[in-house]
Amino acid sequence: MKSGTTDNETHPVLLYDGVCGLCDKLVQFTLPRDRRGVLRYAALQSELGRAVLERHGKDPDDLDTLAVVVDRGTPKERLLVRSRAALFVASTFGGPWRLLGAFRIVPAFLLDLAYRGVARIRYRLFGKFDACQLPRPEWRERFLDAGP
C-alpha cells in the first residue's frame, strides 16, 4: 500500500445508480459473492462517483451506466464502464464466475448494446428509490460515500 492511503483506496470501487432498483439488486447480489471483500461501493450520484466520472471525461449526470474504478488515485487509475465493468465485477468472485471472463473476447460495443437496452427500461422494470438503500451493518464499511 502506498504511503498515506487508506485500505479503501486500494480496492476497486463499483459505482452504481444509487436510486435504481436494478442497481440495488446488483449490489445486494455482489456483496455476499465477494467473499474476499475486494470491492468497495459508491453511488454515481455521490461526491466520489461524480469526481471519478469527471476525471475520466464522463458526464456525471449520465446514470445509465455501471462503472468500476481500478487503481483509484494512482497514475494507473482506469474506469471500466457497462459490460466491461460487469465482467470485472464477476471476475472478483472467483470460482465458476471467472468463466464469464470468456465474454471479454466479444467487442464491448456488442455487449453494451444489450446493456443499454436494459438500462433504458430499468426504472420501469425494477423501480426507483428516493434515496440510496442502507447496506446491512456487516457490509457498511465497504460503502465509501453516501449517495443522494
Summarize the structure.
By secondary structure, this protein is of the alpha/beta class. It contains 4 helices and 5 strands. The chain has helices at residues 21-33, 47-55, 82-93, 108-126, and strands at residues 13-16, 40-43, 67-70, 78-81, 143-145.
What does this 3D model show about the protein?
The chain is an alpha/beta fold and 148 residues long. The protein has one domain (9-130). The protein is built from four helices and five strands, in the order βαβαββααβ. A five-stranded mixed beta sheet has the order 4-3-1-2-5, sandwiched between helices. α1 links the parallel β1 (13-16) and β2. The longest helix has 19 residues, at 108-126. The protein is globular and about 35 Å long. It starts with 12 loop residues before the first strand and ends with a strand.
Summed up, the domain count is 1
Poorly predicted parts? 1-5
Helix content: 25-40%
What portion of residues belong to β-strands?
5-15%
